[in-house]
Design goal:
The chain has about 220 residues and is α/β, with parallel strands linked by helices. The chain has 8 helices and 7 strands. It has a single domain, classed as Rossmann fold (3-Layer(aba) Sandwich), CATH 3.40.50.150. The chain is about 45% helix and about 20% strand. The structure holds S-adenosylmethionine (SAM).
Length: about 220
């Protein structure tokens, strides 16, 4: 059987297993969500990336975060738990009603509901509108919308949403390694490739792609 090119992989499985063996045990809420994601194929960030997001948000003393793509609330729980300050809040956007219901229940289980607002609808329309009213209001933005062809269109609003010194984090930016295969011209691959070029060349940002799991981007918004 022909192995699709996009499965070239990023990390050696043995290294990923080793890293997983070092990862701290998660509490029951996150642990159950990891099992549920495996069973239902929900594409969550998983503990290795969740852990890095948590370190970034804590080191930035993040109080307000925006997430695009809630799913069941797994990454949202990592994010909300890493926020500090009296007005700490995660705003997270999800188009799928079933996912939203699951996320609501999971934020409740994690006792985080009062710190989380789930906005229902399509991020393509919601993000630019939300950002217009909240320019520079967020300490961190996590871009993980399922429709990866939105990454380029949402990049500028996401940067505008950040304060100076804030972080843009975007998941799946190596897209199974396919971004490195010039023959791969699928809309997702082409968009993510373009997104990566824009992020690396944007003068407002200092960016790096971390080749962990499916690759994720960490970009710091500089003082202009
Ligand atoms: C990769 S999952 C998010 C995973 C989550 N961040 C985590 O790690 O736990 C992407 C989510 O984006 C949602 N989604 C897809 N297209 C969307 C759109 N246009 N607007 C808002 N949400 C969208 C999907 O329904 C899905 O739940």
């Amino acid at each position: 059987m022909r192995v699709p090119e996009y499965q070239i992989g990023i990390m050696d499985e043995r290294v990923e297993k080793y890293l997983s063996s070092l990862a701290r045990k998660r509490d029951a809420v996150l642990h159950e969500l990891e099992i549920d994601a495996e069973k239902r194929s929900v594409p969550i960030v998983g503990p290795l990336v969740g852990n890095v997001i948590s370190i970034i948000l804590k080191s930035a003393n993040a109080e307000k975060a925006l997430e695009v793509g809630t799913a069941t609330g797994y990454s949202g729980i990592w994010i909300a738990r890493s926020l500090s300050g009296e007005r700490k809040k995660l705003t997270t956007i999800e188009v799928d009603p079933k996912m939203r219901r699951d996320a609501e229940a999971n934020f409740q289980k994690a006792k985080l509901s009062k710190y989380v607002e789930i906005i229902a609808g399509n991020a393509r329309a919601i993000v630019p509108e939300l950002v217009k009213k909240n320019l520079g209001a967020f300490d961190a933005v996590f871009l993980d919308v399922g429709d990866k062809t939105l990454y380029v269109d949402l990049l500028d609003p996401c940067i505008s949403a950040l304060r100076t010194g804030g972080f843009l984090i975007a998941d799946n930016t190596l897209w199974g390694g396919s971004v490195a295969l010039s023959k791969d011209k699928s809309p997702e691959t082409v968009t993510i490739r373009k997104f990566n070029e824009l992020v690396y060349s944007d003068k407002r940002l200092e960016a790096a792609i971390i080749p962990l799991r499916d690759g994720f981007t960490v970009a710091y918004k500089k003082n202009q």
